[in-house]
């Protein structure tokens, strides 16, 4: 099986450790994963803001970059949702028959990471080890657009040493929503504050999710509140093994985002 990693824009620019963790994890599971260098954006920002025509060349580049692979795996429910549901809308609007055909081939074989592990590989115990108190935030697109269900929790429950605690009001949006956070900043902040409060109530050391965009938003809140809670992408926990486990004591995603904005190292 030829598998390609779609790392996503935000991970490529700010959180490369997530992409590296996906590669380590999949290779440990016997998957030969490749990184097509031609990949760029999935086109979600353009589609979400109504720029369907501008999204056409971006979608075309996506299907060209990932042509010929048996599966495309991405550590983002948001980007997987865009490929599976939005690309067809862009291709239909373009009137380009070749693009519609290419999208119809690429979209169904694009998987969010936990979908690929559980549904395609048939694995729920990936051999991970992470001895920390953890709570999981299910991101909106993974829940509502992809329907990943309990796949992330099943993978986390099998991690040795983990203490997984329920997050109150888990299915409520964190308030990020991409451009929503810019256009509706006050509402976004209020929603993020609610989510951060629920995270603190769990007493967890680590908040985990499948999208770094959401973790960046919640992590920024927790960092400014000096909550002592770190945020980590699910892939980094699943890639951890005894003796090489990822430590939650490094910079939080929110802190790395602030550092990047100031020109520091991410």
TrEMBL record:
Cited InterPro entries: Cys_rich_dom
Region feature Disordered, mapped onto this chain: 242-266
The UniProt record lists the Cysteine-rich domain at: 3-83, 134-218
Q: Which Pfam families match?
A: CCG
Q: What domain of life is recorded for the organism? A: Bacteria
Regions of biased composition (Basic and acidic residues) lie at 255-266
Name this protein carries in UniProt: (Fe-S)-binding protein
| Organism listed in the record | Nocardioides hwasunensis
Q: What is the lineage of its organism?
A: Bacteria, Bacillati, Actinomycetota, Actinomycetes, Propionibacteriales
